[in-house]
Sequence to fold (193 residues):
Amino acid sequence: MARVREFDIEMAVEAAMNAFRRNGYDGTSISDLVDATGVGRGSLYAAFGSKEGLYLAAMDRYREGYALPLVEQLRQGAPGRELLRYVLVAAVDEIVRDGSREACLIIGAAVGRIAHDPQVAAHVQSTTEVLEDALYEVVAEAQADGQLSGERDARDVARYLVMTMHGLRVMGSVNPDRVSLMAVVEIALDALG
Fold:
């Protein structure tokens, strides 16, 4: 007779995601994951196969909870320049609010895991491409209607904005000072033309 799982998978993945954000992949042990999730080691292995399996599930959860809602927001059709300002300011506000300085799981994975883990590399690339594509649509439309200068390629501008957003998160983990981060936002918006 098959044994029924005795824990909430979604809650366990959420708790693991937060542990990985706080400590990174290498800094989070199986014991840390057991403590964070409240789920026994054997049950975690049965559900996810390995620490890496749980990490990949946590990356999926992060994408669903953070990246995809941002993409949906970008696709709402608000005026381009205004929407880009809103998204960048919202990122700063989130960084400043995060008193624990938890890292962006995508950035942490990009820095610490993609060189030796093709599955993690695919997750990072996929999430980044979805965000870049949504930004590209906003930029291209804003260029077409004259809200942004058309001097630069819309795809290049979208990549620049992805880099700016990731850079804000890195800077914010070092020093979550709103004034400093907003200065970067203003420079980025000015660069859009």
